[in-house]
Design a protein that fits this description.
- With 166 residues, the chain is α+β, with helices and mostly antiparallel strands.
- It has a single domain, classed as Alpha-Beta Complex (50s Ribosomal Protein L17, Chain: A).
- Helix content is 55%, strand content 20%.
- A hairpin with a 2-residue loop joins β2 and β3.
- α1 crosses α4 and α2 packs antiparallel against α3.
- The longest helix is centred in the C-terminal third of the chain and has 30 residues.
Length: 166
């Protein structure tokens, strides 16, 4: 299944199988990013080195190997990414035999954003800044009103700080 995912970059399977294969494939991609001969040998021992065959004009044509594609195409694509090379997309379809929930297990493209660059985090940050600014604005307005509103009655009443000192 991992070989098929690397070969086709997207496969349809059940939720349980996708959750089981996802860490295995991510470990292989991390291994491929290192790129040395020892890592290539370990990937071959873990994955196997099946040939990628395409049919052109009805005849089979060898396009390379799964490990070759892993090291030459996929590893350079994910050099700047620290993890999260795959995603699981739930489908509304069910499997015919056992009514299992189907999902798409996909390798992310090079143009996919990193998780911390998503808009949801910036919205939270903007709300937090607005909340802090909203709390600071009433305090500034209150501070500017106090010197202007110094009446003899206000001067006679002790403030909270003066009470603490006494």
């Amino acid at each position: 299944m991992a070989q098929s995912l690397i070969e086709h970059e997207t496969i349809s399977t059940t939720v349980q199988k996708a959750k089981e294969i996802k860490p295995f494939v991510e470990r292989l991609i991390t291994l491929a990013k290192k790129g040395k001969l020892e890592h290539r040998r370990r990937a071959i021992s873990m994955l196997g080195n099946r040939s990628i065959i395409a049919f052109e004009d009805g005849e089979p044509v060898k396009k390379g190997t799964v490990v070759g594609k892993l090291f030459s195409e996929l590893a350079p694509r994910y050099l700047d990414r620290q993890g999260g090379y795959t995603r699981i997309v739930r489908l509304s379809l069910r499997r015919l035999g056992d009514n299992g929930e189907l999902v798409l297990l996909q390798l992310l493209g090079a143009d996919e954003p990193l998780k911390r660059e998503r808009r949801g985090a910036s919205k939270r940050r903007a709300r937090r800044r607005a909340k802090v600014a909203g709390q600071a604005a009433p305090a500034q307005a209150k501070a500017s009103e106090e010197p202007a509103a110094q009446s003899p009655e206000a001067a006679a009443q002790p403030t909270g700080e003066q009470e603490k000192q006494s």
